[in-house]
Write a structure and sequence with these properties.
Sirohydrochlorin cobaltochelatase (chains A, B), alpha/beta, 4 helices, homodimer, 4-stranded parallel sheet, Rossmann fold
């Protein structure tokens, strides 16, 4: 079976503390996906690594399929315009690797339910 | 009992489609919080309303307590620096209203679990 890598792709921020839940998220996915393949973080800007670096690293580890999951709330310009261009670059660098892209996490019903429950716990 | 309003505070984006999950989220919270008080959206930039407008609207509806929930993944500069300044402005406009601020939704364990499960479903 082909080794399947996952990239959790976030916006990035100036404040390093912003990254902390992304590291926790990567740990959770890594723990659950340990049999299928490696899990990496990547950022659009302000933080490292960028997506081409993360994808190259997964390919170097033997991944033949890479799924990029945009850790964004909505499908805005970053996910609809910027990300496809970067994925195109990655695909050109690794033509034999299948690079797939998921819908932004915030569009998922179960994610929104969990966010709604959190909001209600604050009242 | 004091009427308690909730503001779901997001970053905002140029692409209006980015807003769609925020509207769905507001609908979910509104449905569940219908007995406690009104639920509003507000944005830091690029989208309307801004936080002072949303808070003034909740106060006009009779809210004596307003909880602002940052719909951000991490506690970066927007949540640690920009948001407190805007909340200060809101507080100055409505000195008799208690304005509270929650931690960013992405810091919550259950939210991260739901995001992790979504990521794993993409593989």
């Amino acid at each position: 079976m082909a080794m399947h890598g996952i990239v959790l792709f976030g916006h990035g921020a100036r404040d390093v503390r912003w990254r902390e839940p992304f590291e926790r998220l990567a740990g959770k996915v890594r723990g659950a996906a340990s049999e299928s393949g490696p899990v990496a973080l990547a950022f659009l800007e302000l933080m490292e690594p960028d997506l081409p670096t993360a994808v190259s690293d997964l390919v170097a580890q033997g991944c033949e399929v890479v799924t990029v999951v945009p850790v964004f709330f909505g499908q805005g310009g970053h996910v609809r315009k910027d990300l496809p261009l970067v994925i195109e670059q990655c695909q050109a660098l690794h033509p034999s690797v299948l690079i797939k892209c998921a819908v932004a996490v915030g569009e998922d019903e179960a994610v929104l339910d969990a966010v709604a429950e959190y909001c209600l716990r604050q009242v």
